[in-house]
Amino acid sequence: MANDPYKYFRVEARELLDGLQAGVLELERGKAATSTVAKLLRLAHTLKGAARVVKQARIAELSHELEGVLSSHREAAALSQEAAGALFKQLDEVRRELRALELPADRPAEAQRPAQAKEAPESIDAVRVPIDDLDSLLRGATEAGVLLGSLRRDLQTVEHLRDLSLMLREQVSLKRAGSDLVGSPRTRGLVEELGNQLERLRRELRLDVERVGNEVSGVRELTQRMRLVQAQTVFPALERAARDAAEAQGKRVEWSTQGGEVRLDANVLSALRGALLHVVRNAVAHGIESERERTSRAKPAVGRVHLTVERRGDKVRIVCSDDGRGLSMSAIREAAVRKGHATPEQAQAMTDRQLTDLLLAGGLSTADALTEISGRGIGLDVVRDTALQLKGQVELTSEPGRGLTLGLLVPLSIASITGLLLEAAGSVAVVPLDNVRRTLRVRPEDLVRRADSDTVAFEGQMVPFLPLERALSRGPGRGRMKSVCSAVVVQSGERLAAVGVDRLIGTACVVLRPLPSVIAAEPLAGGACLDAEGNPQLVLDPLGLIQAAEAVRAVEADAPLREKLPVLVVDDSLTTRMLEKSILESAGFEVALATSAEEGLVMARARRYALFMVDVEMPGIDGFEFVALTRKDPELSKTPAVLVTSRDAPEDRKKGELAGARAYIVKGDFEQGHLLRTIRSLVG
After folding, report:
1. Of 43, 50, 82, which Cα lies nearest the Cα of 66?
2. What is the pTM of this model?
3. Once rounded to an integer, what is the mean pLDDT over residues 178-202?
4. Integer Cα distance of 226 and 220 in angstroms
5. What's the Cα-to-Cα distance from 684 to each of 7, 445, 584, 589, rounded to whole Å?
6. What are residue 23's phi and psi, to 5 degrees?
7. 400 and 254 in one domain?
8. Does 428 lie in the same domain as 520?
9. What is the pLDDT of residue 214?
10. Are residues 321 and 221 both part of a single domain?
11. Bridge partners, residue 504, by sequence
């Protein structure tokens, strides 16, 4: 949901609209008016609640209007053609609002048009494929790989059966004192046939698995290549930006490029495009001098801006250089002192590299520094943020009077990475291999324990140590290390941390999947992937790991552990269920889902839960009744219940309170922080 916050809502809304449309047609035909209207009211109410959860006020308003119109027809034998037509118009308007949520804010597929397309028509042997479709194909190939893993396990079972048949054949063929132990030639023949059939099945299945495996790998690799587009697809836009900036300031600029044939992920290129536009405009507007100034400095009247793209392993380096005035280091020092980032003495002692690092770190206010350092701060915020988004790096070098060079080193693709698989407390997580500095074996006596953290020696310095199980909220981490463990030294920039794990599984190329948007604030989460059996694995963010290791406070070794119980979410709305699940899991809670109150009661009686989160408006048993029933049960009454509903009337709140709910949350006011604060106040 991180890149598509309305994914589940669109799926659910379409189903609800289809149900509403079918029901209106039934009413128009005069079929079962009372029961049909009741069903349609539930559908409209569910749509309204889901729309409020995802902050779609217009759809919620239209759904509310639908409820009003339908309520007026509770006792009608049939809908008139005019009334049905009015309802259809409202449904069509909801569909239009829903389609608006499907329009992408950016269309990276446009970037895939080859540069030469403006000179020649597209060939009929080439088609455009939206990136979303390629992503779907890549996910499908990954799912096929998961199914293939299941087939490989079946193959192992067949091989085991073949081995058993061979053992049985040997036993049947044994003779003692001239007599067969089993005796019957027919039995021996059947055993022989069984062994032959199993051997044939094993050979054929192995060949099929190998062929399918090769095909799936080929499709996955081809899809990943198809997602890569040539860097030169953005060159025309960058050249136009340079031209327009030069024309606006009465300058002349020569534009040149190199490495346009290098391919990189379309999503990466799309993210870089905006940052590079800033860089190119600034190079012309604030770097290249006027013709008079250049002539006075014995420089060519025409300035030069050059863009180079080169591949470095699984990364791509994009460099924009100009032959302009460069950065004024003295102006940067003055700005640093003026903004309080350094004393005059400290600023004077800073090297050029330290000063440019200060610029890139956002340590200076660009608003004040722009004029004094030739406006170079204008695009730096955008460039820096883009690099962080792509897990890349920015470098900046300048020669006063001779020009400036800005380089971006970013992953070739954000769809797949090579990662190191780590296991801790039974959970497997992935950390990008590029950020792994080294692996270590750490003994308990190697840890230096302080009041607020643990550290371990690495290459002559003490780096923070954090057990991964603690980072993943799987355990307290400290006080449980009784033997040698493995540790991974993770690096981000100049910062290091050692992460303790139970086991190093190995390396693998994994396909990244986005996390729900509500997890964006969780620093440890960089994405997710699936293992060979289809189980989700967390892809860790190296910087988030280091920040967690630096910020962690130690707990006492003998602190009692409290059982961590899951939260049961009971809601018939897919959108609400998935949103609540994402919020709770991002906060470290385990979540179980029930689609009805009846199912929720069965689950609640089967095991213990920390909390019940219950919708009010559900078919069958509603939320009020669910809460009341659990309050009457001696065991279930120990579990607090929270009602989450679109009803905001005082009488509904009172009814929830009388039923025994500990909190009442309105979907229209749905806010992640408030929800988590409420839950933590009830369960800790």
Report:
1. 43
2. 0.44
3. 70
4. 10
5. 31, 34, 13, 11
6. -65, -40
7. yes
8. yes
9. 72
10. no
11. 422
